[in-house]
Amino acid sequence: NFEGRTALAYVAEKVRQNDAGASVSAGDGILEITTGDADGSYTLYIYEHEGYLRELFTRTELPFDVSAGQKLLEVDGFSVSEKEEGLLEISAAGEGEEPISLLLHLRSGS
Question: Looking at the whole model, is its pTM more than 0.85?
Answer without folding.
Answer: yes
